[in-house]
Amino acid sequence: MGYVGEIMLRVVDSILELIGKTPMLRLNRLAKSEGIQANVLLKLENLNPSGSYKDRFIRMVENAEKEGRLKPGYTIVESSSGNTAIALAMIGAVKGYKVKIFYPKDVWQMEKKKILERFGAEIIPVPLEETEIAKKYGVHGARVEIPGRIKCKELEESQPNVWWARQFSNPDNVAAHREMGYEILEQTNGKVDVFIASIGTGGNFLGVAQVLKDKIPNVKCIAVEPSQWPGWIDPLSKEAKFIPGITGGIIEEIRKSGLVDEIVYVSNDEAKDMAYKLSRMEGVFCGMSTGANVHVAINEAKKLKADQNVVTCAVDRGDRYLTDERFIT
Ligand SMILES: Cc1ncc(COP(=O)(O)O)c(C=O)c1O
Q1: What is the mean pLDDT of the chain?
Q2: Catalytic annotation on 54?
Q3: What residues pair up with 99 in beta bridges, in sequence order?
């Protein structure tokens, strides 16, 4: 792809210009070791400036600016314990906004906290006891972030100059991932047989699947879910192991979208084993949800012929999970 080289050699005025347009890696060694003929293509979203595809939320921020919902001097707020928080902190740092992140207390991942601090974000821990309310309303697995969302709402209603990004309901989340969908079309010359995405907010799945289904009638779109989502348990207990970033209980809007051809469940060990294989065989240092994506991609590719393409994403970098892999992002 010519444009990738051009991008690498560009001189830019802001790191935000380097968001998106990520290269794609054909996983040759991994595929060969499994006797696979088809192409397993990994979109390297871990190469985004803050290390994940959530940097694409620049669209969310810029649309809010365009529509006057976010203005100079405002504070960006969000409830997030992971990549979204880091991406907003990075974007806020460059654009000069304060960023306030509500984070579920006691589920700190040391690396993520330090990254957020380095970008200058304010981090406000929300006690887990408040998740009673999440138990009551939680249909989606990202329940640990619900108390934080309540805090965001309170702040937005009680204080001026606050913009809540609302990744779970802001349509610009899906719109940001539609841009990735167009990039995938370009990189594959419009030939995608299977697309695979693990589900948190569903933004990646919905955005890319919308674009692909529109252009490629027979494309199969698979949503990945964790098979061992423990439901509601004490996140501090030893049993509380998660694939960070993907949470059990697919949200209803995704089911109803008509875009899901299949839901595939992946265990913690399957995700972790594949993430380790990606580092050791392909040099891709990624998180566990990428491992889950590629685990499914490999299984799908086994069913396909030589010229067929399976596409999925390297969601984020692995350095944020070095000391603790068990917590949700
Ligand atoms: C590590 C990781 N994997 C997967 C996902 C799922 O992405 P999405 O929210 O677009 O469904 C997220 C998002 O929260 C994430 O942080």
Answers
A1: 87
A2: yes
A3: 76
Same domain, 154 and 227: no
What digits encode the pLDDT tens for the residues 108-149? 678 888 999 999 999 998 876 555 554 554 434 455 667 788
Task: Tell which atom from ligand 1 comes closest to the C-alpha of 204.
Answer: 10
pLDDT at 146: 73
Answer whether residue 328 is part of any domain.
Answer: no
How far apart (Å, rounded) are the C-alpha atoms in residues 220 and 207? 14
Domain identity same for 146 and 196:
no
- Residue 92 Cα to ligand 1 midpoint, Å, equals 20
List ligand 1's pocket residues with C-beta within 6 A.
82-83, 198-205, 244-246, 287, 289, 315-316, 329
Structural domain that includes position 133: 53-164
Q: Are 301 and 183 within one domain?
A: yes
Shared domain for 43 and 66, answered yes or no, is no
Distance 285 CA to ligand 1 centre (A): 16
pTM score, whole prediction: 0.92
Edge to edge, the sheet with strand 262-266 lists 24-26, 39-43, 309-313, 194-198, 220-226, 262-266
